[in-house]
Amino acid sequence: MTYFLFATGIENSNPTIDGGRTRRDQMAECGHYDRWREDFALVQETGCGFLRIGPPIHRTLLGPGRHDWDYADAAFAELRRLRIVPIVDLCHFGVPDWIGNFQNPDFPALFADYARAFAERFPWVQLYTPVNEMFITAMFSARYGWWNEQLSTDRGFVTALKHLVKANILAMEAILEVRPDALFIQSESSEYFHADSPAAIGPAEVRNAERFLSLDLNYGYRVGSEMYEYLMDNGMTREEYRFFMTHRLRRWCIMGNDYYITNEHLVSANGHTRAAGEIFGYATITRQYYERYRLPVMHTETNLREGPNGDEAVFWLWKQWANVLRVRNDGVPVVGFTWYSLTDQVDWDVALREVRGQANPLGLYDLDRNIRHVGKAYRKLIADWRSVLPAQSLCLQVPVLMPRERDGWPAGEGRDAAPVI
């Protein structure tokens, strides 16, 4: 039986800017540390059974084998009490200061140890996104020069990407040693690059091959010759490439893909890109990714700025939902949908590059925890569609797949629960 996952998320991005001197901790800036109990109650209010959330890695991972679990212990106990299923996001755009950045070759092993420690402490958790948006993390940190290492080179990009994907793979393996039935929902940006002229067709084709790199390496999918040469020319070794081709964990994976109005780009003949707005849309681009990997799909992130009347965000929600239904009706196994995030965010209009303190009206609730028009619309969407896509009530039992004594789930609940897929 397939359960449909209606989800939202706690925005927990935490990259550094200003040469590593400034940490953009969205859980702090959006007030979650002070209001997390209230936030979880709002998740229940929406009708969502699933929540993308993770402990802040820069506050939790203090050093090799050293952890501060205070937030995680309290927050995850409350999630379990409320029967909200966490999709645990362990690395969201940043690393602790003592690790440095994504150029550090020690990061993958250190992160795998951290993932194992989390799984051992919370063995009832089944759903994970070990590393969020590997492609975007590498792009923003090492090609655009915005975050963390703030590099703008192909070699920096390839180095960041190979470390991020290796960290994700090693973390999945570590978690599976603790919880053999764990499921991994990748949250990766689904992109497309349109040529703005005949002369731009070649550069656009390169970008459209490059957009798959993180998932190609993660799923052991052999890249094309042009991308192979690109990786080899920019610091990946043959041994490293073989690692990705031989560590295949597809059977435990759901291909989560994120789609925003900024995910499509126009490419010029000189290779420069600019925003294209929505041209193909989620359905067309998702089919491209599905045809490549043939894995179950979850729409893991979307949002749009709420205008003065709230109509824009509500219309975008229904458009995304219509796209989900379209690809699902076409035979693509879509298992979930997410409005990201629960509350408004801060300074995402400048991609966190500057500390302005500007609230971005993107959430189901504003930063005072008042529901937005899109929050009401999402609540209604869930209430209407869970009878058509059943198991919203049953899906709260998803984590109870291992013996109850190990999971620590309340006695008598969900003993016979079935897996997500």
What's the topology here?
Layout (H helix, E strand, L loop, with lengths): L4 E5 L6 E2 L4 E2 L2 H4 L2 H15 L3 E4 L3 H4 E3 L2 E2 L2 H13 L2 E7 L15 H15 L5 E5 L2 H9 L11 H25 L4 E7 L2 E4 L5 H10 L2 H7 L5 H9 L4 H9 L6 E6 L5 E4 L5 E3 L6 H12 L3 E5 L9 H19 L4 E6 L5 E2 L12 E2 L12 H13 L18 H4 L14
Parallel strand pairs: 1-4, 1-15, 4-7, 7-8, 8-9, 9-11, 10-12, 11-14, 14-15
Antiparallel strand pairs: 2-3, 5-6, 12-13, 16-17
- Unreliable spans: 391-421
Helix content: 25-40%
Structural class: alpha/beta
Strand arrangement, largest sheet? Answer: 1-4-7-8-9-11-14-15
CATH superfamily: Glycosidases
Number of domain units: 1
Strand content: 15-25%
CATH topology: TIM Barrel
> Oligomeric status of the shown chains?
single chain
Mean pLDDT: 92
Q: CATH class, please? A: Alpha Beta
**SS summary, helix count:** 15
Largest sheet: 8 strands, parallel, barrel
Plain-language structure description:
The structure is a single chain. By secondary structure, this protein is of the alpha/beta class. It has a single domain, classed as Glycosidases (TIM Barrel), CATH 3.20.20. It has 15 helices and 17 strands. The chain has an 8-stranded parallel barrel with strand order 1-4-7-8-9-11-14-15, surrounded by 5 helices. It has a 3-stranded mixed beta sheet with strand order 10-12-13, with helices on one face. Strands 2-3 form a two-stranded antiparallel sheet. The longest helix has 25 residues. The chain is globular. The chain starts with a strand and ends in a 14-residue tail after the last helix. The C terminus is likely disordered.
